[in-house]
Amino acid sequence: MQPDISVKHLSKVYGDGFQALKDINLDIRRGEIFALLGPNGAGKTTLISIICGIVNASSGQVTAAGYDIVKDYRKARETIGLVPQELNTDSFETVWNAVSFSRGLFGKAPKPAHIEKVLKDLSLWDKRNNRIMSLSGGMKRRLMIAKALSHEPQILFLDEPTAGVDVELRRDMWEMVRKLREHGVTIILTTHYIEEAEEMADRIGVIRGGEIILVEDKAQLMTKLGKKELRLQLQHKLDKVPGELTLEPIELSEDGYELIYTFDSQREQAGVTRLLRTLGDLGIEYRDLQTRESSLEEIFVGLVHE
Ligand SMILES: Nc1ncnc2c1ncn2[C@@H]1O[C@H](COP(=O)(O)OP(=O)(O)OP(=O)(O)O)[C@@H](O)[C@H]1O
């Protein structure tokens, strides 16, 4: 299947000579949720802005739903909805008018039934006649999404969709994004909340210093790079890790009451069996044990600081 977005050999050098993107190659599949992660200044906004036609590329090629974003700009842009970080609409306007106007900007004929559906899906229907300035922060966020969906785009970009949003609204937004995906919309989101990517994404791309350093299925990323940790709470205090165990990646907690063994998720658990057997041989008793997998956040921090 043809990807919904195809980025080939894309580079961007800003006017001051700064190279923000270096030979980016990336395919986004139709109907997936793709999370683009990267530290501040990595180039996420630059990449999204180029795909959305807001910033010009220095070299390379991008297509959206098969349309070249330069040669077929209008058609490409029509397939894309962009939810920016901040709302820029006349605050005296009503919700209904703001969303209808957004649709008009794409030269699409009015379709009140669609606007009604979008507003209802986003729980903004009751507020349709309210002026924007009377909306709460969370409602304004939803309005930005409604505006982006007004022209029925196939692809939706969400730039930091839940920055500064409370936990409840964040959950609501995740639910809503999932619903959009169920309806076949391709979703690309940038986020600083790794938890958000872990919760939502089908695939994850990591960008650092203007380069894509990794693109992977989330589940595979978690098993490939993830580590597991086994913690054993000991009956009796130890002063140091017993000599028989020093070849293993094992540590003793500061209070001497816990042994912490770290191993690759991918590898079989032979090490755990060996460890437990050795402890038995040494007569070291434990009260309890827990295992824990590393979160995407830990994996991510490891990646960007390599
Ligand atoms: N108009 C510009 N002129 C010169 N340099 C720019 C311009 N816009 C962005 N940059 C630089 O390009 C790099 C990438 O910026 P970009 O905004 O794409 O990063 P980002 O990954 O979106 O960061 P953040 O997470 O902080 O939003 C940064 O070093 C930034 O200073």
From TrEMBL:
InterPro entries: AAA+_ATPase, ABC_transporter-like_ATP-bd, ABC_transporter-like_CS, ABC_transporter_ATP-binding, P-loop_NTPase. Residues 5-234 form the ABC transporter domain. Keywords: ATP-binding, Nucleotide-binding, Transport. It holds the Pfam family ABC_tran. Gene3D superfamilies: P-loop containing nucleotide triphosphate hydrolases (3.40.50.300). It comes from the Bacteria. PROSITE patterns: ABC_TRANSPORTER_1 (PS00211), ABC_TRANSPORTER_2 (PS50893). The keyword Magnesium does not apply. One of its GO terms (molecular function) is ATP binding. This is ABC transporter ATP-binding protein.
